[in-house]
Write a structure and sequence with these properties.
20% strand, 5-stranded parallel β-sheet, single chain, Rossmann fold, 403 residues, alpha/beta
Length: 403
């Protein structure tokens, strides 16, 4: 088992602290592995095994625990002393009214609680009601490029990968894909099955969506426009051009549901001059680029958007708040903020002519503060930095310890 230290290190800071630790992320992103690693960490700290209660609430072994009262009684029967117990509850949303049980655990027992879930709206809404101010969310993402290299050295050591970033670009970051020697077609079949499970269980069933065919169309529209700004109205207008009338509110509801299931992340626009978040023309990025290929095949024409997607996910893994920047009529691909610091990023496939160079660098040159600025590309030939803006190959950017 490979330690995903970026997440375990975050969780370590909260062990034996009062907040409930809420571990969220799309299905098969690695939440169960993180819980297993946490269990190992607790055992290293000399916590008695009997004081660590781990439940996989998706397992048939726990099918009788689908209601809050049953879950509460099950945990109550396992707590034998007044000493601290550690509750590790995987996919808590499988339990009806689970938040009442969790709240009761905090009130009635000496416990340190860790829960995982595959729907952000479920966790945020119910927790906000019952556990306001008493939880911390730790989002889990699919493998970063650095994590992929660790997986490659452990699981794919006999496979000759001459260009590891190209392999990562084509296969994406779902951990299961990098534990065996999959062909592209087989890998995409595995990803499609993950995606289908997410759509059925965390989107269609959770939000009681009836028009699944329309939902699929909205998803494919968003995937085909990765890296482009758009809105619900754009989607509705597109369907209108296809002689299909779609209500804008329905589109927004579907996008909201897809965000909740971690299929997409919405990125708002930020006006650099006005210093305000704008309410229109946001961008949507997918939780893993392999979902694009699994649904639509590999498409060279959206390579710039795919590269943006990879950079966006890396920013989120490192804890940044991410915005699309607006500077007059120009766009900045990403403004990322964390702890009062900023970085500005433009992403391009190739700097293959002077017009492209001017476009990517000039926008960043217009920003007169001293925060770091990067142009991130797959261009192996153009190496020049301009006006303090660093031109960097994407794999080097992803592996950079500090930006």
């Amino acid at each position: 088992m490979i330690a995903r230290s970026i997440y375990i290190d975050k969780i370590k800071d909260f062990i034996d602290k009062p907040p409930i630790k809420v571990i969220t992320g799309i299905r098969r992103s690695g939440k169960s592995i993180v819980l297993s690693l946490l269990k190992d960490e607790l055992l290293k700290r000399a916590i008695q095994k009997s004081h660590i209660i781990y439940l996989n609430l998706e397992s048939l072994a726990n099918i009788e625990l689908t209601e809050a009262k049953a879950l509460y009684n099950h945990i109550k029967n396992k707590i034998k002393t007044n000493e601290k117990y550690y509750l590790l509850l995987y996919e808590i949303q499988e339990v009806e009214a689970w938040e009442k049980a969790v709240n009761s655990f905090m009130v009635d027992f000496n416990v340190d609680i860790y829960i995982t879930g595959s729907n952000s709206h479920l966790l945020s809404s119910e927790l906000a009601t019952y556990l306001a101010g008493r939880y911390i969310e730790i989002p889990i993402y699919t493998l970063s490029y650095r994590e992929f290299l660790n997986f490659k050295s452990s699981y794919l050591s006999e496979k000759n990968i001459e260009q590891p970033f190209i392999y990562y670009l084509r296969y994406g970051g779902f951990p299961v894909i990098h534990t065996s020697d999959y062909t592209e077609d087989t890998a995409y079949k595995v990803v499609f099955d993950i995606y289908s499970s997410v759509i059925l269980r965390d989107t269609v069933q959770r939000y009681k969506i009836r028009d699944v065919e329309l939902l699929e169309r909205v998803i494919k529209y968003a995937l085909d426009n990765i890296g482009n700004t758009f809105s619900g109205k754009n989607v509705a207008d597109y369907f209108k051009s296809q002689q299909r009338k779609v209500d804008v509110n329905t589109v927004y509801n579907y996008l909201h549901a897809l965000e909740g299931a971690f299929v997409f992340y919405r990125v708002p626009r930020y006006d650099v001059k006005g210093k305000e978040i704008l309410k229109t023309q946001e961008k949507f990025y997918v939780s893993d680029i392999s979902i694009i290929y699994a649904l639509m095949g590999y498409r060279d024409r959206i390579i710039s958007g795919v590269l943006e997607n990879i950079v966006f996910l890396e920013l989120k893994r490192r804890g940044y708040n991410v915005y699309v920047g607006k500077l007059d009529t120009k766009e900045i691909d990403f403004i990322a903020e964390k702890s009062g610091e900023k970085i500005y990023i433009q992403v391009a496939y190739k700097l293959d002519n002077q017009e492209t160079v001017n476009r990517e660098f000039s926008t960043l040159l217009s920003i007169k503060d001293q925060y770091p600025k990067y142009v991130v590309t797959m261009d192996e030939f153009w190496k020049d930095n301009i006006g303090g803006i660093e031109n960097i190959y994407i794999s080097d950017f992803l592996l950079k310890e500090k930006w």
